[in-house]
Design a protein that fits this description.
Blueprint: H1 3-12, H2 16-21, E1 25-28, H3 29-34, H4 38-44, E2 49-52
Parallel strand pairs: 1-2
Length: 60
């Protein structure tokens, strides 16, 4: 999930839809730490999400 999607759902006030629409919500750690404002990180704590390391998704 990228920051633009997080911002859109946050602005709609419907962060809960993330887990209703997607079976699993994963946010890359770099996006979470560097691009996501604190209020959105707080809202994410209210839903079941996972942060991921970018290395975990690299393919050889």
């Amino acid at each position: 999930m990228d920051n633009n999607v997080l911002n859109d759902f946050y602005e709609l006030g419907r962060m809960d839809l993330l887990t209703r629409v997607f079976g699993r919500v994963c946010v890359p750690e770099s996006i979470l730490l560097n691009e996501t404002p604190g209020d959105i990180r707080t809202a994410l704590q209210q839903i079941d999400y996972r942060h991921t390391s970018e290395k975990a998704h690299s393919f050889s």
